[in-house]
Amino acid sequence: MAFAKLYELDDFGQVLLLLDQNEQTGQPELRWMAQPPGCGVCSYNVHLVNSEDGQSAAHAAFEKAGPEQALTAAFLIFAEVKTAKSQHESLNKTNLDT
After folding, report:
1. Is residue 98 pLDDT above 60, yes or no?
2. Strands 28-34 vs 4-9: parallel, antiparallel or unpaired
3. Which of 79, 73, 64 is CA-nearest to residue 14?
4. What Å distances lie between residue 32 and 48, 90, 93, CA to CA?
5. What is the DSSP letter of 98?
6. Of 15, 24, 51, 80, which has the fewest CB atoms closer than 10 Å, so is most exposed?
7. What are 6-36's pLDDT values in tens digits?
8. Which domain holds residue 50?
9. For residues 28-66, b (16+ Cβ closer than 10 Å) or e, as one string?
10. Which residues are CB-neighbours of 26 under 8 A, at least 6 positions away?
11. pLDDT score, position 96
């Protein structure tokens, strides 16, 4: 059974989807991973309920996932990184001004 899918997107490069379990809680999760420019590999995780239904839902979502979902996940990852960088720059500027 597959546990990973790799997509190559024009705007975002490689986007990896892993069907996994959270190490601490055992919850099934879908882990989207991408590498924004100037950053290490970043991830966006979707946790599901730790039950048979949760496992089934995780497997179904994994099987259904395609390039459209990869594009959405990459957009979310890159947007979060952009926001974090902006906040970091603002904090640095504030610290320099004081």
Report:
1. no
2. unpaired
3. 73
4. 14, 28, 32
5. -
6. 24
7. 999 988 889 999 999 988 999 999 999 998 8
8. 4-97
9. bbbbbbbbbeeeeebebeeebeeeeebbeebbebbeebe
10. 50
11. 64
By residue count, the chain amounts to 98
DSSP result, 21-61: E-TTT--EEEEEEE--TTS--EEEEEE--SSHHHHHHHHHH
Dist. CA 65–CA 6, nearest whole Å: 11
Residue 44 structure tokens: 């966006």
* H or E stretch covering 15: strand 13-21
Domains: count for the chain: 1
Residue 72: C-alpha distances to residues 44, 47, 67, 75, 95 (Å) = 11, 17, 9, 5, 35
Per-residue pLDDT at 93:
67
